[in-house]
Amino acid sequence: MNYSQIQIRRVARRSLIHLWIVVIGLSGFVLSGPVAADDQLACMTEMLQQSSDSTTVGEIRARCAEQTEDQLSAEPDNQPVVVSDRLKEDKENTLQPFTLMAHKPNYFLAGAYNSKGYDAQLFQEQFRDPSIEFDDTEAQFQLSLKTPLWVGLFGKVDIYGAYTNRSFWQVYNSELSSLFRETNHEPEVWAQFSPTWEIFGFKNLTNSVGFVHQSNGRGGVLSRSWNRLYANFVFARGNFAIGFKPWIRFSEDASSDDNPDITDYLGHYELRAGYKWNEQVFSVMSRNNLESGFDQGAFEFGWSFPLWEYPYLKGYIQYFRGYGESLIDYDRKVNRIGIGVSLTDWL
Asked: Per-block average pLDDT, block size 10, for the chain (347 residues)?
């Protein structure tokens, strides 16, 4: 083999390696996002120029992957970490068919005490039984799942569907056969995209627009339901995240509206913030406080924490004060604290 043939083979080999780098880089863009893919592509291109002919594509890719991981781990504290991790997990799961993922937190409060008490008047009227009385302490739980419906619409938008069930269980009330006092059903669908905006050091990691229906599936005087069009904007910095969720209620015919004044108590937006410290997650929610002049709003605080070395559940404490704890109690003030376990967090 003469010198010219050797040179031609070297050029062809390097061209083939360049082609593989582009393919691998584009794959990284789809799976990991533009920032990580750009870094890896730049690293592989630079390393190609410095490597010997005996170096394989796999070796170059492995070195650059390790270098990119080291760079990400050395990012400053103000970079969004917890929300980015959650979005990365969601993105990986959306690539798998028939996938169910956690949407809102999933938890079980074994004991939830309401110092205001739960009014049974509507239940007495519905069932024509004046002896119905509720315990101030009950169990409460929430199950919330989502699934991708369409990934990569227009190259940037993902469509999701979700269902959230929140139940209020009079499990300790043997006189009423431990009935479920209230169950709220909340199916929703939304379009979500990830921008790259930044404001005051907070990165806007995800925005969405969706439709949600919420009802308690009852009839008569116990019937409650409403429909909303909403948006949701999530910002993050380090281990701190904040979300702003405004909504508009779809009007209903006055003759069939079971709760015409529900926005007087649940308002038109919700603010939620979360902070992750080691394995503990602190969250706070404020709803309708500014709109109502702090007269008919709500406040919720949550704290999840590890249970020794057990990896599958976390301890969970939740405090709620105000209106709208459930649909049946949307216009009744609640002052409740509960303790139990959490399966998934906001962060």
From this structure: 47 42 37 44 64 62 61 53 67 70 96 97 96 97 96 91 98 97 98 89 94 97 97 95 97 92 97 96 97 95 95 96 98 98 93
Q: Say which of 51, 213, 223, 268 is annotated catalytic.
A: 213
| Contact (CB, 8 A) for 90 and 103 | no
User: For residue 147, what are the CA distances in angstroms to 68, 120, 216, 240, 283?
Assistant: 30, 37, 23, 25, 24
The whole-model pTM stands at 0.76
Q: Which residue has the tokens 């479920």?
A: 180
Q: Rounded to an integer, what distance in angstroms lies between the CA atom of residue 280 and that of residue 98?
A: 31
User: Which CATH superfamily groups domain 82-344?
Assistant: Phospholipase A1 (2.40.230.10)
Work out the angle at residue 167's Cα, subtended by the Cα atoms of residues 316 and 99, and round it to the nearest 5 degrees: 80
Say if CB 73 and CB 298 are below 8 A apart.
no
Structure tokens at 335: 């002052």
Q: Is 131 a catalytic residue?
A: no
Q: Is 215 among the residues known to form the active site?
A: yes
Cα gap 164→102, rounded to integer Å: 10
Q: What share of the chain is helix, strand, coil (3-state, %, to 5)?
A: 25, 40, 30
Going from N- to C-terminal start, the domains of the chain cover 3-73, 82-344
Amino acid identity at 54: S
Q: Which amino acid is at 50?
A: Q
In the set 32, 178, 215, 223, the catalytic residue is 215
- The encoded tokens of residue 215 equal 């009802």
